[in-house]
Amino acid sequence: MNDHACDEYLDTLPRKRVAAGVLLRDKNDRIVLIEPTYKDTWEVPGGVVEAGESPWVAAERELKEELGLVRRNMPVLVVDYVPVASDGMPEGLLWIFDGGLLDETECEQLRGFDEEVKSACLLTIDEAAKRTKESLARRLKVALQAAQEHQENVYCDQGRRRFPIEPRADQVEHKAGAAVAVP
Prior knowledge:
about 180 residues, 10 strands
């Protein structure tokens, strides 16, 4: 393929935005949200994956920039597909990584480190839903459930779980206080 044909082919490929966020929580399963200076709704710590950057590296970078926290090798909780938004935001793949539990010192010192962060706080999942866009609220609910259940790699479509599929109530067997999926 010559350079011109290659350029033409590359021009036909779809473009999707990619963003990476981090779910951080305390021992009571309150989650960290940040209040950005540049918009009305709150966000999970994170941001856009830059060109040439992996989602993992972006999540680590954004967490350090926004909250001054360092986490490495965070497992993927959720990858969510979102279509073009009504405000024109392009479709994308949005990742949520498990930043784990905050220790007492991190909870006490929780604050924004970046000029784009007005404030940061711990909220219950229901309180968080009141401050975020509906699609993020759904994504965070799935991510928190995955973290609580020690699941990884949950795939969503607009914040709605696609895989792994949650078992129906009649497919769950309770043993010694724990729910176990029955094939």
